[in-house]
Amino acid sequence: MVLQLFPREESFFVLFNRAAQNVLRGGQMLRELFDDYRDVEQRAEAIKAVEEQGDEITHDLIDRLNRTFVTPFDREDIYDLAKQIDNVLDWIEAAAARMAVYRIPQPTREARELAHIIVNVCEVIVEAVGNLRKLDRLDGPIQEINRLENLADHLQRDAVAALFTDNVNPVDVIKWKDVYDTLEEATDQAEDVANVLESIRTKQM
Q: Which domains does the chain have, with CATH numbers?
């Protein structure tokens, strides 16, 4: 393995932008699935393909990290940011997979709202990653990611509570609780992205 003695910062920024855009694509596909609910298994597989592309980008980032001696940010932060962005997409894919595996007949209003929040948070991740060269612009996106995560958290709790008050079939309660938890976890992972971005901003400014 040959270490690069001089930083190729551009490659990190390019790869992070690719990763963020790929996560956004996965989020958009999930929202489209929930808004136009048909061909569920095929569309869940298409989201899985996007998630696999995300794995490849993450691998490329970590490979670049291992072969670069001087990096634009702390090595730990680069690794964490790559993994956390990938984690968001993992949970997006998991939500789509659960809809297919559980053979959910139709998404609920709350599930659709959570899918829309996920797209919103992915859009902010794209904005934030695009500002990695201008760290003073990260405060707004970081705050917005946290706001959206809180919104998703409240919505998920209300949705789960409703399952136990609306005389839902016990099996459906189990299925929907898992779906709601999975959707909300995608926004939790986005909050972890924000935490890494905050760490980068603090160390570099």
A: 9-200 (1.20.58.220)
